[in-house]
Design brief:
This protein is mostly helical. It contains 21 helices and 9 strands. The strands form 4 sheets. The chain has a 3-stranded antiparallel sheet with strand order 2-1-3. It has a two-stranded antiparallel ribbon with strand order 4-5. The protein has a two-stranded parallel sheet with strand order 6-9. Strand 1 (about 10-15) and strand 2 (about 20) form a beta hairpin. The two termini are about 35 Å apart. Belongs to the major facilitator superfamily. Proton-dependent oligopeptide transporter (POT/PTR) (TC 2.A.17) family. It is found in: Membrane. This is Protein NRT1/ PTR FAMILY 4.6-like.
């Protein structure tokens, strides 16, 4: 290979045939476009069922409303949490290219299982003989329940792998050594959320209508066909993709450095001796250049010591250790510090996603008790997310092409609006959304009481558009926070663990769904000790104290916002930390 060709290759990247990726031939907008199209199809397949799943479980599998909500939140939580597995595998073992293909195949298998169960009557529990809410139906159990949960969690495994591999695969297509490449990468994350919404729009309108009017077997079938279609479309882009070469487990590095720091803290208690015994022989490392510098030109700086922040972690490179497994470099120490710095930001986003979990559970059930007529059109309750989805699809291009360029001119900065400012805006909107949700539920219950329909299954004389308000605020919060989180974690994380770091965005969603389930169970346990029936228990939503639950969520979201502001105000971006450390080099 001649020298000119070597200089034109992208160090650390290969094409789909495992050959060095070449600038101008691999990566760029075209390659990322295939990723965006695939994401539309993938999210369509996932959300078509997830958005309406709570009604499928209650009407056909005969779970109670609270049990249905918990099954859905656990399913969604598991799917998003498994994104960490996909991200870990992409960083450590397999390129994102192959992780996606394997995960899409697993998801299609799970959807096929659910389609078969929906088609075959004998694989479902018998239908209820009475529509009365006072008579319980036979809940799915035994082999039928096993088939249901096997299908659901195969889907969850596939979705997790896709969510953990597809966003970093798209983001890696851009050259971060250039200003244009970094701006295009930022636009990619905005349009990734836009494409999520495109898939969601089709899912909560067309596919949900099919499920409600033609049967769930058709809904599952459409999802299966869609995810299968995404595979050849993804493969068409193979010649133009560039894929990051996995360089080993980032988790191993994190635990090794932390273990070394703890071990040496106890072994070398004399801080003065420890300082004298700094193991500079192990601290030579390649400085990661700041954004705008050539990351492919690695500057070796022997005997560089770690930065002074988080000094406890620095002990990992103090004094030579007898155990070679605990030997760490200054570069590894700095990478672990980055992870520790972004963790409080990650933790602060979990409460927002707990609020978002209500959109696919209680909010859908609320709407199902209301008048869902829109003129001559009867809107399925599970299609309510169409409001935030359409709003996101309108706002995302405006944000990318108007708001961001304007902010860049005003602030004279590359990003215009920082990642943490975007996340903070989403957290503020989540507080407002929960207050609105509580007020709307109070109005809904008042209408039920005044109309004498508390114990009736008839639709209440109140339009479902009231529920759309909380969808609108939470949808806006999702746009600001999800895109901000993904770009923040990808940009700030060490290059060796970017897929895993980006997956933290989905892990935050997962923990939010799990927290929602825990809160529902905890609230029911506590309130059952002081009342005949808990706040959120039974088959009649009109007898729930859902408004109290929403007020509690509003208070917790406010406390969480304070927690976030504490950490965000103290966070220094990677490029800022490097500029501050340059005079000491």
């Amino acid at each position: 290979m001649d020298e000119a060709h070597m200089l034109n290759t992208c160090e650390g990247y290969v094409d789909w045939r495992n050959r060095p990726a070449v600038r101008g031939r691999h990566g760029g907008i075209l390659a990322a476009s295939f990723v965006l199209v695939v994401e539309v199809l993938e999210n369509l397949a996932f959300l078509a069922n997830a958005s309406n799943l709570v009604l499928y479980l209650s009407k056909f599998m005969h779970f109670s409303p609270s049990s249905s909500a918990n099954v859905v939140t656990n399913f969604m939580g598991t799917a998003f949490l498994l994104a960490l597995l996909g991200g870990f595998l992409a960083d450590a073992f397999l390129p994102t290219y192959y992780i996606y293909l394997i995960s899409a195949s697993i998801e299609s298998l799970g959807l096929l299982v659910l389609t078969i169960q929906a088609c075959v009557t004998s694989l479902k529990p018998p239908p209820c003989l009475s529509a009365s809410t006072s008579i319980s139906c036979e809940q799915v159990d035994g082999g039928k329940a096993l088939m249901l949960f096997a299908g659901l969690y195969l889907v969850a495994l596939g979705v997790g792998g896709i969510k953990g591999s597809l966003p970093p695969h798209g983001a890696e297509q851009f050259d971060e050594n250039t200003l244009q490449g970094r701006k295009q990468r930022s636009a990619f994350f905005n349009y990734y959320v836009f494409c999520l919404s495109c898939g969601a729009l089709i899912a909560v309108t067309i596919v949900v209508w099919v499920e409600d009017n033609k049967g769930w077997q058709w809904g599952f079938g459409v999802s299966t066909a869609t995810i299968l279609l995404s595979i050849p479309i993804f493969l068409i882009g193979s010649p133009v993709y560039r894929t990051k070469v996995p360089i080993g487990s980032p988790v191993t590095t994190i635990f090794k450095v932390l273990a070394a720091a703890v071990y040496k803290s106890y072994k070398f208690r004399d801080s003065s001796n420890s300082a004298i015994g700094m193991d500079t022989s192990r601290t030579s490392y390649t400085t990661e250049t700041s954004e705008g510098e050539d990351r492919n030109t690695k500057r070796k700086e022997p005997s560089q010591t770690p930065t002074e922040s988080l000094e406890f972690v620095n002990r990992a490179v103090k004094n030579k250790t007898v155990n070679p497994m605990l030997e760490s470099t200054a570069e590894q120490v700095e990478e672990v510090k980055i992870v520790l710095r972004i963790l409080p930001i990650f933790m602060s986003t979990i409460m927002l996603n707990c609020c978002l979990a209500q959109l696919s559970t209680f909010s859908v059930q609320q709407a199902s008790t209301m008048n869902t007529d829109l003129g001559s059109l009867k809107v399925p309750p599970a299609s309510l997310p169409v409001f935030p989805v359409v709003f996101i699809m309108i706002l995302a291009p405006i944000y990318n092409h108007i708001i961001i360029p304007f902010a860049r001119k005003v602030t004279k900065s590359e990003t215009g609006i920082t990642h943490l400012q975007r996340i903070g805006t989403g957290l503020v909107l989540s507080v407002v959304a929960m207050a609105v949700a509580a007020l709307v539920e109070m109005k809904r219950k008042r209408v039920a009481a005044n109309s004498g329909l508390v114990n009736s299954t008839k639709p209440l004389p109140i339009t479902f558009l009231w529920i759309a308000l909380q969808y609108l605020f939470l949808g806006s919060a999702d746009l600001f926070t999800l895109a901000g989180m993904m770009e923040f974690f990808f940009t700030e994380a060490p290059k060796s663990m970017r897929s895993l770091a980006t997956s933290l965005s989905w892990a935050s969603l997962a923990m939010g769904y799990y927290l929602s389930s825990v809160l529902v169970s905890l609230i029911n346990t506590i309130t059952s000790k002081y009342r005949d029936t808990p706040w959120l228990f039974g088959s009649n939503l009109n007898k729930y104290h859902l408004e109290r639950f929403y007020w509690l969520m509003c208070i917790l979201s406010g406390l969480n916002l304070s927690h976030y502001l504490f950490w965000a105000s103290r966070y220094k971006y990677k490029s800022m930390r490097k500029s501050l450390s340059q005079p000491n080099n």
